[in-house]
Amino acid sequence: MQARFSLPFVIATCLVHGDLQLTHLEDPAGDRKVWDCLEGVQVIPTTPRRPLMNYDPDQPDSLRVTLNTGEVVEERRAHPTGSL
């Protein structure tokens, strides 16, 4: 149950399966590929420059994935999809 609230688990699940489905959360302990991937997931928090802002366009959230080949894929998003 706690896996649903774990950012590293969600990221590892998306990397292994390509997306996140409710079925991936039914038995998270049984998915060995996700647990193997989870070992390489690091979450590095940053201190917000403007902590009273929910989403700061000048300090977007970022996700950086380093593939086994060494290639780096990075995405930045100031506002999550569906936000105002």
Helical residue percent band:
10-25%
Query: Using DSSP, what is the number of strands?
Result: 2
- Largest pleated sheet: 2 strands, antiparallel
Radius of gyration: 15 Å
Unreliable spans: none
Distance between the termini: 30 Å
Order of helices and strands: HHEE
Q: What best-fitting shape do the alpha-carbon axes yield?
A: globular
Question: Please, what is the oligomeric state?
Answer: single chain
Q: Could you tell me the strand content as a percent range? A: 5-15%
Average pLDDT: 87
Count of helices? 2
Q: What is the SS-derived class?
A: alpha+beta
Order of strands, main sheet, comes to 1-2
What does this structure look like?
- A two-stranded antiparallel sheet has the order 1-2.
- It has helices at 7-17, 32-38; strands spanning 61-66, 72-77.
- The protein is globular.
- The model has no long low-confidence stretch (mean pLDDT 87).
- A hairpin with a 5-residue loop joins strand 1 and strand 2 (72-77).
- It has two helices and two strands; from the N terminus they run ααββ.
- The protein is of the alpha+beta class and 84 residues long.
